[in-house]
Structure formats: C-alpha cells, structure tokens
Design goal:
Blueprint lengths: L1 H4 L2 H8 L5 E11 L2 H7 L3 H13 L7 E4 L2 E4 L5 E6 L5 E6 L5 H16 L21 E5 L21 E5 L9 E11 L5 H19 L1
C-alpha cells in the first residue's frame, strides 16, 4: 500500500465526486498472436484473456479496492467474462485463474461451457462475502463489433471500485506482424489515471510478445 499512499490525496479528491470514474476507449496495438494460437491449437480469445489477466496483476493501481471505508489491495481475482447463453442472453463465466497458460485456458473453456448452457443468470456472487466480491475484474467482449466506446452499467457510481474492461472485434493482420484491438478501460479515477491505462496496454503487448516468441 506504500504506492497508494503517494496518491491518497488524489483518491480523496475523486472519491468525493458523484461520478469518480474515468473511461477510455482506444485502438490497442499488440503482436498478432492468431497465427501462433492456430499453430498451438489454442483459442485466441482465451489466450488474449490470459494475457490481460496477468498484465493487470503487475499494475498496483488496478488492484486497489475499497472495503469497510478503507482502501485495500487485493492479491488475486477471478477469471471472468460475459458469455451469450443458448437463449441468446448474457451470462457470466467465472473460474479460478491459475498462472499456467494451458490450465487457464482449460478452466476458461469449461466456465464458458457452463455459462452457455445455463438459463439463469450465473455467478452473481451471492455466496461470497462482501470482501470476497472485491476479488474481481469485470470483463466483456463484443467480437461482432469494431468497438468505439462503451458505458458500463453501474449500480452506484460513488462506490464503484472494480475496473471494467471491454474489447471488440480483432483487427486485420498488419504487414509488421501487429494487430489492433479496440479496447476500453473504465476504473475509479482515484486509483487509475490515463497513464496507468497506457501501462496496461504496454504490459498486455509485452506479455503476448513473450509468449509467442
């Protein structure tokens, strides 16, 4: 929490706002991992999800939460994302996210299968304590759309402390071996500035490059 104390005054200022959220949407450039995934027989979405998860963990600002009126730093968070179920309604996949890529993808695919075949809204966290619910990152993907911007539903702006990430349809392959991903980050401005969103984008690209090298 030493790093947080350096920005406590910023947190207190933005926490006093009726809406303390910052929401940025941009085209993120990353190495084109799809040929590598095809060769390894890995689903690109779940590979990218893995890279996003592990990039987030390296940036303290995305790990801060508010619990019992105090700022805390979580150690880990669920693997989770939205899924369209068999009735064409949104549902939530959730799983314990391991550090190993192949195990992460296996668990993610199983969570997806369960969410797709479940009619009721799943993984609503009713069985979790208030503190356990903080171990979360909200993630959604809209592969049908070239995403330009998104506004996530918020129950109460002032108490919103869990980052929300979204991305749209992956871009076409580029001659330099890169690809673009329309990406969006919404987070509490007391914790996250635009610079930290930049750091996250850089960390995701670096994680991809490391894995497919």
């Amino acid at each position: 929490m030493h790093n947080f104390e350096k920005r406590r005054d910023r947190y207190e200022r933005f926490a006093a706002y009726e809406n303390p959220l910052v929401n940025l949407s941009f085209d993120m450039t990353v190495p084109d991992f799809r040929p590598w995934c095809k060769a390894q027989q890995l689903p690109p979405f779940h590979f990218f999800l893995y890279c996003v998860h592990h990039a987030i963990k390296g940036i303290d600002n995305f790990m801060y939460r508010v619990h019992d009126g105090e700022v805390i730093k979580i150690d880990d968070f669920w693997g989770s994302y939205t899924v369209i179920n068999h009735e064409q309604n949104v549902n939530y996949a959730r799983f314990v996210a391991p550090p190993d890529l192949h195990e992460f993808i296996a668990r993610s695919l199983e969570a997806k299968r369960i969410a797709e075949t479940t009619s009721a809204l799943s993984n609503e966290s009713e069985q979790l304590s208030e503190r356990e619910r903080k171990n979360n990152i909200h993630i959604t993907s809209m592969p049908w759309l070239k995403l330009n911007a998104i506004q996530h539903p918020v129950f109460e702006y002032k108490s919103y402390d869990i980052p929300s990430l979204a991305w749209g349809r992956f871009g076409e392959p580029q001659e330099d071996g890169k690809m673009s991903v329309p990406f969006s980050v919404q987070a509490h401005h007391g914790f996250v500035d635009g610079y930290h969103v930049h750091l996250l984008a850089e960390a995701i690209a670096a994680r991809i490059a490391q894995l497919i090298a």
